[in-house]
Amino acid sequence: MIGLEKDLRRRLADPTALLLWLGIPLVLGFLMSLAFQPGSGSGPKALVLLADLDRSTISKLLAVPAGGPDLPIVIERVDLEEGRERIDNGDGTALLVLPKGFGNAILYNEPCTLELVTNPAQTILPGLVQGMMESLTEAHFYAHRMFGDELQLIAKGPEGGGFFKSLQVANLSAGINDKLQELESLLFPPLVELAAEDVQVRAAPSRGVGLLLLPGILILSLLFIAQGLAEDLWVEKNAGTLRRMMTGPVSLTGILGQKVLVTLVLVVCVSAIALALSSLAFGVSVTVLPMALAWCALTGVCLFTLMSFLVTLASTQRTSTLVSNLVVFPMMMLGGSLFPFSSMPSAMANLGKMTPNGLGVQGLDLILQGDLFSAQLLSQAGSLLALTALFSFLTLRRIRSGFAVN
Questions:
Q1: Neighbours of 90 (CB within 10 A)
Q2: In the sheet that 73-77 helps form, which strands lie side by side, from edge to edge?
Q3: CB 391 within 8 A of CB 308
Q4: 112 to each of 45, 75, 107, 108, 385, how far by Cα in Å?
Q5: Is the separation of the CB atoms in 299 and 337 below 8 Å?
């Protein structure tokens, strides 16, 4: 137990490391929650200054679709001189000039050149405006290919002024309807067939972004703790204390067991703080916290034995840090620590669920949802225990084969 007390004192004498192990995952979790947070609809919008030289009914209708608050483009009507001055001063995304004869060109399918001046200080929004103009051009082209005769008849208006005769209106409507029927299979294809069936559906509980990311972030913290504690083997090797301890009354298995107990104490302390904060912040039920704490302890010990085996494979301390980092970062990506499994490709998610931290994330997620005694949770616990035993055996074998003395 002397070794246990020694390791605990050394860890408590370095509170900065403990704060980093807990703080870095919390910062990452906060940033990822912001990234996954749905937008509020108040994002940047492109301001288009519209100089209408035509003053026709068609040109006046151009700004109507951009008046909605949820659309990314806002059109403001200005005089030509004012528009040029404002766009030169960087006030606006683009200046769109509609020339005289624009309305007739639209109705009679005649050539017409629009002037679009974009703001060079902006990069994304001008492209959005240009894409909108190209879409309108395409829509105008296909509209005349389908309903060109009807549009020109409407543009010419009734002979002698006044109103169209009832027969003309009927023929016009019938012509448009016939063309829509011909195009029905292209415009409105039956993509989905709906079959009605009586089923009982159990609504899934709503989960916020924070609760969705919590298991991965907490296991990520345990992964950092395990990596830091495992690297302590090289510190004791270089100081010669590991070799002296092996010559004492405590066996090598006991020495590794003491380090596992130190890991257990630190993991429980950090996990208890994180779980208590999550209960206050995300409304996690207090009844699941003891089981969640026990699961974090099991996962942390498994990760520590894995990291211990990895660092003992290297021939130098610098190489051991490189080896552990080469393993930790892929585990972070695959094991659900940076992205939920539900948002990952299925092949990638299936691979990540087989990693030790992936098993920890899955089990902790089940526990936080209240599923405490499912067969899946028991299977994952058995896998973590088997991996802990395997990595412990490999670590002891590696230390005995010369890690402590070479």
A1: 11
A2: 73-77, 46-52, 94-98, 115-118
A3: yes
A4: 27, 21, 11, 11, 75
A5: no
